[in-house]
Predict the structure.
Amino acid sequence: NEEKQLNVALSVIEDCHSTVRKLHQQHNVSVGSIHNILTKKLKFHPYKVTLIHELNEDDPDRRIDFCETLMNRINADNNFSRRIVFSDEATFELNGNVNRHNMRYWNSENPNWAIDSRSTQHPQKVNVWAGIINNRIVGPFFIDGNLTAEKYERMLREDIIPAIQAIVGDDFERTWFQHDGAAPHYGHDVRAHLNNVFRTRWIGRRGSIEWPARSPDLTPLDYFLWEYLKNRVYQNKPTSVEELQQRIRQ
């Protein structure tokens, strides 16, 4: 009836993040009726949360410079982007990551609601490194505890670079390596090792091509691989860290 519709409307106006199930419990109105009130009566739509990295003032200029540099190299060599190893680290929590499906914003217009991706933390987790080159996966390699420059240099030497060499074979001397500007990637020994192995063929902080900070939309791991893996890993809830690692390997 109109009174219940009004009460539902007032609840959503007071808390635009209310879920349909919460409204159903609050007002003793069926889930279908709640949907009908929100979408047909109020003309509201459920907008999903987007994970973001907050940008600094000079970030857009750095991103443009990077993209222009890459486009110039691709124009000179159509296969340039296919010879880049894009890499990244991610954390898989045993109890799952941010559940976007349950994070809604009801409104008549898209408010572009977003949250800082640094705000989600869970105790039991697996840290993993992976790379992508020309649609092939390098790794994954698991990280024991938090990543440090010392651990990262050892991973490059013992795991990552040998895996890249096994994939690209004789084309290694034309292969580029990319990583972002995270503190472990900036260690003196890390940069020295990259300079020794790849010489000028690496992208990152103080690399021959600077990687623009806070640019997840520019690497296929952030905008594709991690989300794809997490959707597969958490189809059924893993019961242990070991099971979580096994699913990531698959």
Observations:
- The chain has two domains: 2-41, 58-249.
